[in-house]
Specification:
- The protein contains 4 helices and 35 strands.
- β29 and β30 form a beta hairpin.
- A 9-stranded antiparallel β-sheet has the order 4-1-6-7-10-13-14-17-18, with no helix packed on it.
- The chain folds into 3 domains: about 1-210, Jelly Rolls; about 240-325, no CATH class; about 330-460, Porin (Beta Barrel).
- The protein is mostly beta strands.
- The radius of gyration is 24 Å and the shape is globular.
- Keywords: Signal.
Amino acid sequence: MEIRMLNKQFLLAVSMAILSSGSFLDVAFAAEEPLGKTILARGSVTADRNSAKEALKRLSPVFQQDVLRSGSGARAQFRMVDDALINLQENSVLNLKEYKLDSADGNGSVLMDLISGGLRTVTGVVGKKDKKDYQLRTPTATIGIRGTMYEVGIVSDGMYVGAWSGDIWIRSHSGKCDVELGDNFKNRFAFVDVQGICRMLQGVPKVFREGYSSDSETDVSNTSFSLDPLLENPQRELPYRGITLGQRGLAIGSGQANSITSSRPVIETSDNGTVSSPNGTVTAFTQSVGGYQLSWGRWNDYALSPELDGLPSPVEDEDGLIWSVYQPSDTDVVTGRAGEVRYDNMVDSLSQSTMGTVSNLAVQMDVNFNDGSVTNGTLSAQVPDHTWVAIFDGQVNNGQLDLDYNGGALANAQTGALTDASGQIIGDFVGDTAEAITGGFSMTDNINNNQINGTFLVEQE
């Protein structure tokens, strides 16, 4: 009886919040400033606000007391004021009860109610100083964090919880579950039934790999996947894109990554497997490059798994590895652009060469958004007594940038002699309006095997 009363109390509180969201008191209480903005809205994504349902699209603000809803097959992402990223799955309802950032160092408070469905979130600065500042409530339990990426999926007879990175704590309303999951604990996954009883899981819950539905049946069977402390489930979609350069001689790898704020993200590439650096030295780590959702760095040591469902093994590579992680521009934004734009304003870069220090890297290209063509692409970089040069073109397909390396050379600054160079180049649009391009390149001269590779950020003029 006590358990049922606790669940009823939670549902009653949530129902009252939803029903009263348009009242005068709530309008007066709602913050004037947005709590965050929508960075992705696919399918039916809405907010219950002021007794009305408002459709959300990219860059739509979200406010205190908003009840966010996603329909069948829908997906939404929100960037909050403390830089947290909330990925709301289909058939989900999330009430933003309170979300305050009082200072840049993390003072504030977060209180959200996940009523149904599921979410994955990379938490922001709120809660890192004091874990009591952050709470996610569900019908069965309350979840707190210690700076982390975690996931919740509500099903008909309970909920699944997973700590992909960092630590979380779970306390059921019945008081029968009080556990912690994550990096510093034995388990990463748990199931909490409707009575508030916890069951630890050794494998990745099926619901995290196949989507969310409140009508799902319980599946607490273990998988054969074994999770490294820094490695997420390779079967699931990760929130960012990643690039690796120079990895074990495999010029460029591109794929997805788990974190944009960590200096040791896990990067999965379709060609090169899973890459991480759990213990290696990190150099040149830079966050928010140029003010964009972009970070990069260099690992002197790293671990590699040729198979995406394996665990990385240490790699001996004296050349090290340059990596980049970023949030690409929404493809709808890219396809909505028109006209011809030149990208030639070099914002920043990170590169390395077997010939010594790299300087004066320059990249430029013309993008015609009307016909999707990329022309006049050139790249140049200086190393001691030599200059690398390359030409490329490409096209924009379905909002994504596809670059083609057409040729290059290594020029001797003293004699003028040229050596042909083979290479690769890739790129992607970044920014709210696709106003910048980030990418990676790799070149090797065909006679002496000198090499250069790096990553760059270039804005439109």
